[in-house]
Write a structure and sequence with these properties.
Elements (H helix, E strand, L loop, with lengths): L2 H12 L1 H16 L7 H23 L3 H8 L13 E7 L3 H21 L3 E9 L5 E9 L3 H5 L4 E8 L8 E10 L1
Antiparallel strand pairs: 1-3, 1-5, 2-3, 4-5
Helix pairs in contact: 1-4, 2-3
Amino acid sequence: MDLQEKKVELEKLLRIEETRQRIALIEKDMADPNFWSDHEAAGKAAQQLKHLHDIVERFELSESAADLRELEFEATFSGVHDDNSAFLSVHAGSGGTEAQDWAEMLLRMYLRFAEKNNLKASLIDKSLGEEAGIKAAALYIKGFRVYGKLKGENGVHRLVRISPFDADKARHTSFALVEVV
């Protein structure tokens, strides 16, 4: 498949024409003086407008297969709630102190993800483990497409490693549950 065929296929996949129509609708709404009375909704709409403009501009300026591959990632955000902020919780599973340490590692990873992506992460609740780590923690991560980016993290995460908490240096398997809503 040549570059032009890929671009036509990606245009359908990204629904570029629908995106242009959505941009026009948001801009029309923003022209209404009453639109700005609800600051939170107006800010969210402005952020969405910027993102939609960015997608269309990147599509129009794409000149290589690499450019098109970068845009393909946008097509994964097709869920109803993908553009929203999210609550994320981490719960230590079976494995005792090892699992609690693993849960804390995951929590730090999600906090770094938020920091790296310029998202605002607020720690809502945190229950510390007896020796190390955490029993459970909950975050609220605010930003555009947070849920879409994190929804794949739902489920049980497993870690197999030589335990730093075991004097025999035995291999341990630890589990932690991650929930994104």
